[in-house]
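User: I'm preparing a small set of examples for a lab meeting where we compare how different chains pack in three dimensions. I only have the primary sequence for this one, and I'd like the structure in token form so I can line it up with the others. Please keep the answer compact; I'll paste it straight into my notes.
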Amino acid sequence: MKTLKNAKTGKFYTIKNLSEFASDKIVRRLFDLGFTPMQKIKLVRKSLIGKTFLVEVRGYILSMRASVAEVIVLNEVEK
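Assistant: Understood. Below is the structure token output for the 79-residue chain.
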């Protein structure tokens, strides 16, 4: 299962789903921010120690913690 936490920088992905282990509060917030199934996203940058991620979704860039990034399950987009 590929998650945003172990994705490669600069690649495009589509969101497969959000992990069933995520709390309802986190899932609701991610849906509000546009992280819906089949949405195209790009991992822009990871911090050096891998604790913070910059993600482009729906035309804006969002920063998130690794604990949130690990609940987003991805499919890689073929080019």
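A couple of notes for your slides: The chain has a mean pLDDT of 93. The longest strand covers residues 12-18.

User: Perfect, thanks.
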